[in-house]
Amino acid sequence: MTPVLPAIQLLPLAGAVPAWRAEVDAPRWRAGCEAAAGAGGRLAALWASDERDRGQGFCVRALLVLYEGLVCLELHLADATQTYPDLSDLFACATRMQRAAHDLVGVIPQGNSDRRKWLRHGAWPEGVFPLHRDFALASSFAPGDDHYPFVRVEGEGVHEIPVGPVHAGTIEPGHFRFSIVGEKVLRLEERLGYKHKGIEKRFESMTLEDGARLAGRVSGDSTVAYAWAYAMALEGMAGVRPSARALHLRALLLERERVANHLGDLGYLGNDCALTFGFTQFWRMKEDVLRSNARAFGHRYLMDRVVPGGVACDVDSASAQAMIAEALRLKDELRTLRSIYYNHAGLQDRCITTGRLLPLTAARLGIVGLAARASGHAIDARVHPGFAPYDELQPRIASHRNGDVAARIVVRFEEAFESLRLQRLILEHLPQGALRTPVGEAAEGAFGIGWIEGWRGEVLVALEAGRGGRVRRCHPHDPSWQNWPALEHAVIGNIVPDFPLINKSFNLSYAGADL
Amino acid sequence: MQKILFQIARTGIISERPPAADESLRQVSGRLNDEVLKLLGRALAIRHVDAGSCNGCELEIHALNNPYYNLEGLGIKFVASPRHADMLLVTGPVSRNMETALKRTYDATPEPKLVVAIGDCGCDGGIFGENYASRGRVANVIPVDVAVPGCPPEPAAIIQAILTAVSAARP
Lengths: 515, 171
Known about the structure:
The complex is a heterodimer of chains A (515) and B (171).
Chain A: E1 11-13, E2 19-24, H1 26-38, E3 42-50, E4 58-65, E5 70-77, E6 83-85, H2 94-105, E7 108-110, E8 158-163, E9 175-181, E10 184-191, H3 199-203, H4 211-215, H5 223-238, H6 244-272, H7 276-297, E11 306-307, E12 310-311, H8 317-342, H9 345-351, H10 359-365, H11 369-374, H12 390-393, H13 405-428, E13 447-453, E14 458-465, E15 471-477, H14 480-490, H15 499-506, H16 511-514
Parallel strand pairs in A: 2-5, 6-7
Antiparallel strand pairs in A: 1-2, 3-4, 4-5, 8-9, 9-10, 11-12, 13-14, 14-15
Chain B: H1 2-11, H2 34-42, E1 44-50, H3 56-63, E2 76-78, E3 87-91, H4 96-108, E4 114-118, H5 119-124, E5 130-131, E6 134-135, E7 146-148, H6 155-165
Parallel strand pairs in B: 1-2, 1-3, 3-4, 4-7
Antiparallel strand pairs in B: 5-6
């Protein structure tokens, strides 16, 4: 069923998920987004590209998630204005995406949104835009001014705690500016972008085939989700559908990635509440999963196992039996540990009502993934109609209404159980078929979208083919773009020592959003 | 409490023996004398710095503390400040946005500081290489004693690199 947006002609996009695209002008860009927001739609991603070589100026794209599927609105900015209607009043999560689009391409949202730099810091000068076609990947600039105006909180007894970019634990770099009174957090402001390493520009120097490896390294903890989303985008534009066996194996890898990450996070959540027993047990189980990944697929984190056209691994019956037995054993162990976590007074005391993100706030911020599900929003790309192979597997969504650290722990447990069930289901009924279907050359200008529910939330890849099988433009989008601002809200009113616990309960990616 | 104790007893001790040092990972030799290395090797404090990785290497650094590798059992622990550290464990291609922070962390680490670069990106820039936003390998920004390749290197390989850095170079 084609979605209806006012005065916008939607053209279907070939691929594994229902998706449409439409070229719009500025009034219809606004009207389309207003209609989508009014109908309960979300903004999945916003990015810009340089189309001047085609005489089309700059282009801004907004990817919307509607009930019917994905809709990509494309707005070409005529002549030299480089401005487009701001979307941050409709979708709060648009703000940082618009700031990043300005830093990389120079397009300016017309409206009242925050215009501070986001990814740029001091690595390249103001007025220089790395994603312009005439900008060389190897350009080098002397380190520039890194001044950044944080929002100051005024009042008696208010003081600031700056944290980062180098943090106290084994964590990715980012800066957190806390404004506090006593121990209580009045405001948290995040400053990210420290890991920006030019991924989108790097894509433009690669072939469509090689791009899959880079996509798998946007956020290493979600390598399967990214590699699959990239492959889905490429297969869509090339008109290729992988075999049922390849799709089931991809789902197996994705669920193994989900279980491994949930186990690791459950361990750290215990650790952050001084229950080191939890860390030891969950990380033992995670290591068992990683080692069986290495045995069965040749890589602990399953990097480069999802490839365009299919998968680069297979499962024989011995290995399937071993993984089924492992899933059953993990289920029993998880039950034991769940009962310990749910009955541990100290853990309950730290987690219940801590870092609360109410369902209304979650909806206004447009958050996604497990954090959304823990705040009453049962959204999960895996249950979208027609999403092979999950349409056959019928996954059950885990959700909770409380939106606190405890709710995110509950959702993780439930998802881990469900994921183990799905793994067994896949391994018991693995269909036959080719592991890899050849992906022919995609025509220049072909455009495809990949959309995968990774363990953290939905991972998107928008891909456009260039000449001779090369990448013209690739925009990978991490769910952390949507969820980082939610963390700022979740910590309000909490005490500073609870921040690490709240942060870990979301466990967002810095690399994925810094690009 | 009973359940916790039962689970601990059922798990038992699963820690494995650490690997031996590997000279081929060493980038410079003879920088520190044997006496200093012996002292560091018995109680080493490490500060991890992610200078721009994809976070894959971080997953394996976390795993060093799981009961199989039990890094703390070797007298090696991670500390919260470079001022408490004997060694920096650096991942990533160094992003230009992290270059200053990495240099400052290095400057804040007391002498004699050891630096271990982790992963393909730490060794040579990896798939990201050098570009307008990436300085590439760690050695382009601070001096490196030992570098361990891999995408990501497995925990045993990281332990081997750490132990190589605190072992005396064979002539």
